[in-house]
Design a protein that fits this description.
Beta-Lactamase; disordered N terminus; alpha/beta; about 500 residues; single chain; Rossmann fold
Length: about 500
């Protein structure tokens, strides 16, 4: 079952068909028109409904029928389907007396794709007529096609990222990182940048999502076109629609004279970055979905629909899949945004990138504050074992703090912020640390203690990987070269 079929099941098509069939049975038995309430109820549903007798003469169509097919009731009522559309599926049902369910039909004259459910109406084993219930899936079908196209694009890009050994573009030179998982993300960014594909960037807070956005923009085909960013968490719900789509003069109390262009209008021809997309309220998610599907926007207070050619890049530190399961994020919007996803690894999984970044920030803030400082081996070791829940942003603020407070030329552990030295952080990082007491090792030096922690972590990683060193390297977030250096340093060949 594909995504479109799942949508229709969830929309209750089976239920509608069943109820209409029951209703028509009552209609046939009584040979009379049902109550006005029943007809009004059928007019109220969003699915198109058409009822015919056994000769295919149209007895009833609801409002949704006329809206979807853009035809007035007087053009079709009391006419026979076989004279209007000789190849219609409902004629097949009348002939075979077998229902047709979830049938995709293309109405070429209307440029529509509909999914049809048709049920014969029987009385005492005699055919009375048939009822057809259908829904417009034109936009959903387009979304499905776009999703499949994006998936094919993803596959080719991911393959290229895995196979390619070419250097990254010079525009990415400011991005610091050499760990394999981080470099793979950069390669994906390089490959998707020239396309118009919607990009979703996931990563923990402080992991560097905006850096990836800037990297994509640097080599994008729209790099010389407008760029607009919007932090969805910083905009009140009451103002979000006007911020995104704009408004006309006098559309509401407090509206600026002359109106205001929204972010999508400002970004026309270029790119819009929707940061913290997971914070967007549900009512706005449906409006955003329509824009992404149709490429059209409508200002508050205006009846005019405007075209907007905008590439969307979204970012979040939330688990959107979990939010979808919890009903806090629309699944259709998630799939629309998720055409191409880049998941940035947290700093703790980037191995030696931690020290590369530390040295970078050291140089930056040493120059800013006019100091000449270095990082001690003990601090470097500590950095490699620290969990960095705040990721790159936390490391950056840590280095600025350390440069400011250090007046001895070498940054030691006592120069680090207090939150980095709290014992509970180390406990979370290494639950087995309690096993390492002074009774285990009479060397009380901090360096020795850190090495002991590191050795234990490597041992645990190898054991949890059932002796698979490659898996252990990945779990530790270190390169093969570093792993085997540590392996030799701690004498594991003799112990294991």
């Amino acid at each position: 079952m594909n995504s479109i079929e799942k949508y229709y099941v969830s929309a209750g098509i089976h239920h509608i068909v069943g109820k209409v069939g029951d209703f028509m049975s009552v209609l046939a038995e009584n040979d009379a028109i049902a109550s006005v309430m029943m007809w009004e109820a059928m007019d109220a549903v969003n699915d198109g409904i058409v009822i015919v007798d056994k000769t295919s003469r149209i007895l009833y169509v609801n409002k949704a029928y006329t809206k979807i097919l853009a035809v007035s009731k007087d053009k079709v009522l009391h006419r026979q389907v076989k004279t209007i559309e000789p190849g219609a599926l409902i004629l097949q049902v009348l002939q075979n007396r077998e229902p047709v369910l979830h049938q995709l039909v293309e109405v070429k004259t209307r440029g529509k794709k509909i999914r049809v459910n048709i049920t014969p109406i029987m009385k005492d084993e005699s055919l009375v007529g048939a009822v057809s219930v259908f829904n417009d899936i034109t936009e959903l079908s387009r979304s499905q096609e776009e999703l499949e196209k994006a998936q094919r694009l993803n596959q080719s890009i991911f393959k290229a990222a895995a196979d390619s050994e070419t250097n990254l573009p010079v525009e990415f030179s400011h991005v610091i990182g050499q760990s394999p998982n981080f470099l793979r993300c950069l390669r994906l960014a390089e490959l998707v940048a020239p396309t118009d594909a919607t990009v979703l960037i996931e990563g923990e807070s402080g992991a560097g999502k905006e850096i990836f956005v800037n990297a994509i923009l640097a080599i994008s085909g729209k790099r010389r076109q407008p760029y607009v960013n919007l932090n969805c968490s910083a905009i009140p719900e009451s103002l979000m629609e006007s911020e995104l789509f704009g408004y006309t003069s006098g559309s509401f109390t407090g509206a600026v004279k002359g109106g205001k262009a929204g972010k999508f209008e400002q970004a026309d021809g270029g790119t819009i970055f929707l940061d913290e997309i997971g914070e967007m309220p549900l009512f706005m998610q449906s409006k955003l979905l329509r824009v992404l599907q149709s490429g059209e926007i409508q200002k508050i207070g205006s009846q005019v629909v405007q075209k907007a050619d905008v590439r969307v890049i979204a970012a979040t530190n939330r688990d959107l899949k979990q939010m979808v399961r919890g009903g806090k994020f629309r699944d259709d919007l998630y799939f629309r945004l998720n055409t191409f996803k880049i998941t940035i690894p947290p700093l703790r999984e980037r191995g030696e990138d931690i020290l590369l970044l530390a040295e970078f920030f050291l140089e930056k803030y040493a120059q800013k504050y006019g100091k000449k400082v270095t990082i001690s081996p003990e601090v470097k070791q500590y950095f490699l074992t620290f969990p960095w829940n705040g990721n790159v942003r936390q490391l950056q603020s840590c280095m600025e703090y350390a440069v400011i407070v250090c007046n001895e030329g070498i940054i030691q552990l006592e120069h680090l912020p207090d939150d980095l030295l709290q014992h509970e952080n180390q406990d979370r990082m290494n639950p087995s640390f309690d096993a390492y007491t002074v009774e285990d090792n009479r060397d009380y030096s901090l360096k020795s203690g850190l090495q002991m922690i590191e050795k234990k972590r490597i041992q645990q990683a190898v054991l949890e990987a059932n002796g698979n060193k490659t898996k252990a390297m990945k779990a530790l977030g270190i390169s093969r070269r570093t792993f085997y250096k540590k392996w030799k340093q701690y004498g594991f060949d003799e112990e294991l």
